[in-house]
Amino acid sequence: MFTFILWCILFVICWPIAIAALILYPIIWLLLLPFMLLGFAVGGVLAFVKAMFFLPARIIGGR
């Protein structure tokens, strides 16, 4: 909702930039999609490594 309000303000101030942003946003989102997926994958792998690293302490019952 906040983004929409900012876009409306930009539309009132300078409508050509607002229309360009409206057209270019999906294209930029599609270009960045592989990097977002890569970020999710790397985050998942790091969470798995962290879980494996702390597994012995969890089995023993340490804090």
Largest sheet: none
How many helical elements? 2
The strand count comes to 0
- Whole-number total of structural domains: 1
Instruction: Give the SSE string.
Output: HH
The fraction of residues in strands falls at under 5%
Radius of gyration: 22 Å
Key phrases:
63 residues, mainly alpha, elongated
Structural description of this entry:
By secondary structure, the chain is mainly alpha-helical. The protein has one domain (2-60). Helices cover 92% and strands 0% of the residues. It is built from two helices and no strands. It has helices spanning 2-13, 15-60. Helix 1 (2-13) runs antiparallel to helix 2. The protein is elongated.
List the helices and strands and how they pair.
Blueprint: H1 2-13, H2 15-60
Helix pairs in contact: 1-2
Quick summary:
This protein is an all-alpha fold.
